[in-house]
Amino acid sequence: MSAPAIVPRVAREQIRGAIIDLDGTMVDTAGDFNAALNLMLEGSGLPAISSEELLRYVGKGSEHLVRSVLTARLPADQVDAQFAAALDRYQHAYATVNGRHSAVYADVAEGLAALRDAGLKLVCVTNKPHRFAEDLLTQVGLRAYFDAVFGGDSFEKKKPDPLPLIRASEALGLAPAQMLAIGDSENDALAARAAGIAVLTVPYGYNHGQPVHSIDSDGIVGSLLEAAHWLHQ
Predict the structure, then answer these.
(1) DSSP SS3 for 101
(2) What angle do CA 145, 167, 182 make, to 5 degrees?
(3) Domain contains 1
(4) Catalytic residue among 21, 23, 188, 218
């Protein structure tokens, strides 16, 4: 795959940090989501979810995920009534399966190492709850690459709002123009665009079941390792 060429070279040369998404970008966690949701649904006496349906909802945080699943199974007037209890069951279930059905994508560790070797500071920004993100990154051996990790409950707003990316940049002591965001979904690109941050997308993630080519990003890279190579071209 050829390297993207939309961002001017001067922008690449001033990049000093990278904001990297977790689910669908570094780790394939669809199996964890599926297992936790089906435990939640079983406890609620509701029909199970398939992996195909799941991918339409992933990426906007636990609250959105649970509400979407309930909305597909309950009359509208029952969704709000059952939401709080269902979310609690889901969070409890996820704590028991986190990392058990996940796999790190190819060239992630190599890509993170290459980005660090290039002198970049790295921060993970995900809509997954912070405690689950920290635990998963530790389990799969990636936590040590990051200067900081922020979850969907770390700030007042989640991606696609730009706030988490702006705060992450501040935590690294860098300006948005010095940052590069890497993610798999429109949420990542919308947040980066609004924050004034360059953004690359990977083609193997979730993106709510939509093609990655529909995302307004600065280019598609086949892996995090390719993203590291892109910085030097």
Answers:
(1) coil
(2) 50
(3) no
(4) 21
Q: How far apart are CA 127 and CA 225, in angstroms?
A: 23
- Identify the domain containing residue 197 by its residue range: 9-29+102-230
Q: 180 - beta bridge partners?
A: 18, 198
Chain segment 30-89, per-residue pLDDT in tens:
999 999 999 999 999 999 999 999 989 987 889 999 999 999 999 999 999 999 999 999
113 and 226 in a single domain? The answer is: yes
Distance of CA 95 to the CA centre of its chain: 18
Decide if 77 is catalytic: no
On whether both 42 and 155 belong to a single domain, the answer is no
Q: Is residue 3 part of a domain?
A: no
How far apart, in Å, do the first and last CA atoms of the chain sit? 14
Q: What is the pLDDT of residues 117-150, one digit of tens each?
A: 999 999 999 999 999 999 999 999 999 999 999 9
Asked if residues 184 and 201 have their Cβ atoms less than 8 Å apart, the reply is yes
- Taking the C-alpha atoms of residue 164 and residue 156, their distance in angstroms, rounded to an integer, is 9
Residue 155 and residue 91 share a domain:
no
Work out how many domains the chain is built from and give that number. Answer: 2
- Tell whether 200 is covered by a domain: yes
